[in-house]
Amino acid sequence: MNKVKTITDVNAHITNVSSEVKVVDGTAVAHISFDNRAFGTITAVKFNATGYNAFGDVVSVNGKESFILIVQDVSIGKMDSARDLVAKLPNPDIRRLELIESQICYADGKVLTYGGKNDTLIESEELSQGDAGEREQRRALEEQFGTGFVWKPQELDGGWRCGCGYVNIPGDEACDACGISKEKVFHAFTEDGLNEAVSKYRETEERRKEAARIKEVEDAKARRKRNIVIGICVVVGTILAYWIYHASVMAERTTYSSAEEMKSALQGTYTYYYDGYSGRTASCQLKIQGDTVTLTYSSLPDDPIDSTVKEWNYKNGTFSTFQDYIVTNTGDIKESGSSGYLFEKGGYMSTSSSSFSSNYESGYSVLKFSNLSVTSNSSYTICTGKVQNTGNKTYKYIEVKGAFKDKNGNVLDTDWTYAVGSEGLAPGESSEFRMSVTKDYNIESCSVSILDYN
Questions:
Q1: CA 109, CA 429: separation in Å to the nearest integer?
Q2: Strand, coil or helix: 230
Q3: What are phi and psi of 400, to 5 degrees?
Q4: Using CA atoms, how far apart are residues 194 and 143, in angstroms rounded to an integer?
Q5: 10 Å Cβ neighbour count for 316?
Q6: Residue 296, Cβ density class (10 Å: 0-12 exposed, 13-18 middle, ≥19 buried)
Q7: Which pLDDT belongs to residue 277?
Q8: What does each C-alpha distance from 226 to 6, 189, 218, 239 come to in angstroms?
């Protein structure tokens, strides 16, 4: 056991008394704290107080060096601590207090008077944490009697010390702090008492471990069940979200019962219109003849782009050439992508300047391309070139499209860009542009056309 020497005031009803003085609006106020020993619930405390100023001089009250300070209307339970109890001081010059217990009033009406300081040296023995056997005994006693019940009880001249460490006055048959009878306390530290406590502790530990094991198994089952439920919910939610999305997408399309039905229904001409300053104008047509799709731009009527349908996806209402197309629920055809062209069923597109009045100048005819070049780097196939304004007007937002072709003229990929933005291209001026697609060794040329302008 560890041997410990302590000094205890056996007459004190409260311990660890401290105070702090604060000045609020010119009034000195004491904030008082203390620990209640074990005689009952405290409702009021009377202190003999001595006040000092900032220089350490005694501050007289009514011509006396000490005064009575009362803290009342409180409720401090047995073995509890009081913190920051407020009491107004009789002299505003007080900055420090010395407080000595005078009388204590308890909830049962009992009033106890402090008998004066009676410090007693107590040599005690404490069960050691360092010794494995005593460590188990500590845990066993604390399990049975409460935390801190680790002190070997003693008979003293001024009373007796409990296993919890509290010093009781003579005649107390039970500890005022923990409530355990004196007889039971002293028996607990005998060889038989320690063996009984350890045996009970081990049984309790076994039950606790078994309960923990059962709980762990139950928790694992609950987690598995919860994870299964969550997994099912996630799967169901994902499937539901997919079908909702799929339904909303398919509601905007036309589907068919077979590829042949789709192919037959889509034969014909479709026209893309743009809204320019001169009104709504047809600038590109898509014609489907069998499995061949032909794109013709009004600016390049003699250079149509032919491609072959790779797949008629009749269930999803789409078909694919070098790019994907969607059949809308109105029977029109739209290029895939948010900025894809919408080709309306039917329509007419003029490809001759004779249809315009002699006063009308078309950007499609006066914007000329030159210096077209196709190169590749490690990631992209690139088309560069120059567009020149050979007309009499300034053109803005000139949008050009490139069709990247193989040696047989088949379109393998496309890209578009603005060759000129808001700055405009004045008569006689030229501007360079650049388009690129994912690198493809089969690309040998690029056909460039005007898509739109202002």
A1: 108
A2: helix
A3: -120, 150
A4: 12
A5: 14
A6: buried
A7: 65
A8: 56, 50, 12, 20
219 Cβ neighbours under 8 A, 6+ residues apart: none
Taking the whole predicted model, whether its pTM rises above 0.90 is answered as no
Q: What DSSP string runs through 276-308?
A: ETTEEEEEEEEEEETTEEEEEETTEEEEEEEEE
Burial class (CB in 10 A: 0-12, 13-18, 19+), 127: buried
Q: Which residues of 263-291 are buried (b: 16+ CB within 10 A; e: fewer)?
A: beebeebbbbbeeeeeeebbbbbbbbeee
What integer pLDDT is reported at residue 257 of this predicted model?
95
Please state the length of the chain.
454
Q: How many CA atoms lie within 13 A of 151 on its CB side?
A: 20
The residue type of 314 is Y
- Smallest CA-to-CA distance from 449 within 299, 346, 320 is with 299
On the question of pLDDT at 289 being above 50, the answer is yes
Residues 6+ apart with CB under 8 A from 265: 256
* Torsional sign, CA 295, 293, 302, 444: positive
In angstroms, the CA 185 to CA 170 distance is 15
Average pLDDT rounded to a whole number, residues 102-116? 93
